[in-house]
Amino acid sequence: MSATTAVEMPEIGATGLTPKEVAQRIESGQSNAVKTSTSRSVRDIVRANVFTLFNGIICAAMALVLVTGSWRDAVFGFVIIINTGIGIVTELRAKRTLDKLSILVASEFLVHRDGKDVEVSHNEIVLDDLLWIRAGEQVPADGQIIQTWGLELDESMLTGESRTVRHQAGEQVYSGATAVSGMALVKVNAVGSHSYAATLTAQAKVYKKTVSDLNKGINTILKFMTFLVVPLCILLILSQIHTVGGWGTALSTGEWRQAVVSAVAGVVGMIPEGLVLLTSLNFAVAAMRLARHNTLVQELESVETLARVDALNLDKTGTITDGGIAFNRLVMLDSANAAAEQAATQALYDCCNEEQPNGTGQAVLAGLKAQGHGPGQVASRVPFSSSRKWSAVRRPDAGSSAATGREGNETWYMGAPEVIVAALDGDYSDVLRQVNDYADDGNRVLLIARYDGPDDPLHTGRSPQTASSAKPGESDGPRLEAQARPVALVLCSERIRPDAARTLAWFREQGVRCRVISGDNPVTVGAIARKVRLTGDREPVAMDARTLPEDVDELARVLENVDVLGRVLPAQKRAIVQALHTQNHVVAMTGDGVNDALAIKEADLGIAMGNAAPATKAVAQVVLVDSKFSHLPDVVARGRQVMANMERVASLFLVKTVYSALISLGVVLTQIPYPYLPRHITYIGALTIGMPAFILALAPNTRRYIPGFLKRVVTFALPGGIATALSVLLAAWVLPPVMGWNVTGDAADLSALRATSAIILFAMGVFVLARVARPLNGWRGVLVAVFAAAGVIGAFVPFVANFFALILPTGATMVATLIALAGSALIFALCLWLAPLVRGLTGKLSRRH
Q1: Disordered: where is this region (predicted)?
Q2: Pairing of strands 513-517, 564-566
Q3: Mutual angle of helices 273-291 and 632-670, in 10-degree steps
């Protein structure tokens, strides 16, 4: 059914714009079309994942090796493809899901043009159009009300205020609000990007890069390595050229190729490419696991932020409550018998059982139906009107009333307590006090009143008995009988999500401070916070945001003692996040309305509900697709698991960085051949670092992440890295003269040295893995044993041994290798013993200075 036949449109005098005027406005760009972008473009996603510092270093190293023709030593370059592919695929998947969520239902709107009502699309509305706003429609453009027929708007998406607002002629309405009841004729005065919602959205840019403490640490290492790698690579090439007899010999014999490969072995070992890959893999796995629980992670790095959150700002409507209304109970005002309560309950049902009940009426009907109540007999009815603020029913002649013993018909009223009480004879101030008490506890209160009398106050005419008492100018329409008396109060409230209290309890246990920030009345919000036990056994402290200081530092001090804020404006939500940042809090912000977009963008982690405005979902890093607040603990726990375990295994990768840098430095200073090949480090790294680290990173862990990742992992990695470097260098310096190897002139002797160095490197890798995996009881011990065995077994598999140039020592070389391994174990134990002593000494020195 079209809108023109669904409701009877009132007659208006204005003719509206002519077709020529409409065409002129469209041509001049004064239409309601607005270009929206819900997520990053494909080009942005690809560029951000391909052009990274890590990819540049690895790509350059791989190109150098490929130039030499030794493609087997370039297999480390595949990590670029895998790492980049994971990032691109995951973010494209997030983009596709978000774009699907953001598709709006194409609606038609009724405008008055050239004396006729015509339906146009959202984008075809132009400036100065006469626009009809009807119940159930979302306001498509800003405008001024010319004439209204009881228009009530839900502006919660713009202001956060959950109560509907009744507008009068001459008032401004804004795009994004929804008409709940009534209708109005509006003259459009702002369209497209100039409308209120679009202006608010423009302040929140669509994309903001998430700051990752882990990635910052890795990039710090990469930047340091960039300055170190280039000169060290040149020095390594020069040193390796020198070991084969100089440039002339190297170029004539082709030994320059081996020199380049050896130099790259040192460079690649210094770059923790596995750590970058593992980070991407774990972020992607966490994102996919969360997606199975209807949680969309738009940026992989935001998984880390989840682990660091210690302050969570919650929007009330849509997060703690689901936006609906629930019927709580009926409170009789006098000590009444069961029959009187039954009569009042039946009257409540009948008053709400209109043809098109509003939200409160629907909630009451649903609650009473659940209790087994149904419709009764009604002789006449006055439906609820926003202008009248009450509805009424009159029962057919039922004879004697069980409740009062009086003869006659019953007329029941239901509506706003202050309106009904004001029309009654008598003093009912005690009733209003009860109403205020219940309202302060977060309830929406309605009053039921009853009139027993022979006349019919709902009839459009007057009885002979009441006609003489009519006031001058009083209409003959339905009236609120002054002799009626209050009977009961109806208590309704916003429907609280069943999982809200349990979810908030989890956050309390995890040390996350939760605050409710809403545009609603602070008393109402505070009452809801008490119901869900926001602060546990402690009474939550509520405050009206209109009294908040503007100074950020002062605001931060006030917030430390406040749990609930009401009447909060969009700009204040952002200021609250900024104030919490000054106290070094990691802030997460949830929301669903356009009014939340600025704060969500400002927060370290923005969380949008699935039914949120497109602009809000666009700036959020995480979207709860099914809008369930209960997913948040799983979101935070998953982030903590990834980050706590990533810190645990990052030491594995940094050990390789440390020993590679030290070995390269030792090679340059002593002008010896590089003691192993790039393929050796690829094989050993995969078995003692990469694969075990990935398994360790998936283990359960809910410890909250604390900033300072880089300092802790470097401190942990230094002993193992130094021990490994010393073990390999000592073997390269001592074994050739002892064993009589000519490593600069004999390829077989060089291969023997490299085979021994590779074995030492593998053994030290197993030692480091065992240290990281502690405690070794249970599956962790099995993990270390399995990968140690896999490394040994691989050396006996011909294809593996040939591909990775693995040579098993025999005879005197075997004895020398075993002695070197024993020495390596002693060096490792000595470094571990000295590390705490050195840390303690440096700590004392730093405190003195």
Answers
A1: 453-480
A2: parallel
A3: 170
The token pair that represents 497 in the structure block: 């999500």
- Alpha-carbon span 701 to 647, nearest angstrom: 11
Name the CATH superfamily for 327-466+476-495. Calcium-transporting ATPase, cytoplasmic domain N (3.40.1110.10)
Angle at which helices 255-270 and 632-670 cross, to 10°: 140
The pLDDT confidence band at residue 40, using thresholds 50, 70 and 90, is low
Structure pTM? 0.64
Mention the CATH class of domain 293-321+497-636: alpha beta
Rounded distance, CA 613 to CA 594, Å? Answer: 6
Please classify residue 62 by burial: count the beta carbons closer than 10 Å to its beta carbon, then call 0-12 exposed, 13-18 middle and 19+ buried: buried
Q: To which residue do tokens 């369209």 refer? A: 191
Residue 606 CB-density burial (10 A; 0-12 exposed, 13-18 middle, 19+ buried): buried
Active site (catalytic) residues: 315
Three-state secondary-structure class, residue 13 = coil
Q: Which residues contact 661 (CB under 8 A, 6 or more apart)?
A: 228, 232, 270
Residue 410: burial class (beta carbons within 10 Å; 0-12, 13-18, 19+): buried
Per domain, the residue ranges of the chain are 3-30+127-190, 42-54+65-101, 210-288+642-842, 293-321+497-636, 327-466+476-495
Distances (CA, A) of 527 to 101, 318, 523, 537, 632: 33, 16, 6, 14, 23
Amino acid at 73: D
DSSP for 602-665? HSSEEEEETTS-HHHHHH-SEEETT--GGGHHHHHHHHHHHHHHHHHHHHHHHHHHHHHHHHHH
What angle is formed at CA 593 by the lines to CA 498 and CA 307, rounded to 5 degrees? 65
pLDDT score for 421: 93
Query: What is the CB neighbour count within 10 angstroms for residue 162?
Result: 22
Domain 210-288+642-842 sits in CATH 1.10.630.10: no
First to last CA, the chain: 82
CA distances (Å), origin 330, targets 325, 334, 492, 757: 15, 12, 9, 84
Contact in structure between 81 and 688 (CB atoms under 8 Å):
no
- The secondary structure of residue 547, as a DSSP letter, is G
pLDDT tens-digit series, residues 440-495: 777 889 999 999 877 778 775 444 344 334 443 344 568 888 899 999 999 998 88
Check if the beta carbon of residue 495 is closer than 8 Å to that of residue 322: yes
Q: Under a CB-based contact definition with an 8 Å cutoff, are residues 384 and 419 in contact?
A: no
Compute how many other C-beta atoms are within 10 angstroms of the C-beta atom of residue 398: 14
- DSSP 3-state assignment of 189? strand
Tokens of 425: 């004879």
Burial (0-12, 13-18, 19+ Cβ within 10 Å), 487: buried
Highest mean pLDDT of the ranges 44-48, 277-281, 677-681, 810-814: 810-814
Nearest residue to 1 via CA among 110, 151, 154: 110
| Dist CA 593 CA 573 (whole Å) | 12
**Cα–Cα distance, 4 to 118 (Å, whole number):** 8
Q: What does CATH list as the number for 3-30+127-190?
A: 2.70.150.10
pLDDT above 60 for 128? yes
Our CA dihedral for 741, 744, 745, 749, rounded to 10 degrees, sits at 40
Helix (H) and strand (E) counts for the chain?
31, 21
- Rounded to whole angstroms, the Cα distance separating 94 from 286 reads 13
649-658: pLDDT as tens digits: 888 888 988 8
Say if residues 204 and 615 touch (Cβ distance below 8 Å).
yes
Q: Has residue 103 got a pLDDT over 50?
A: no
Give the Cβ contact number of residue 145 at 10 Å. Answer: 18
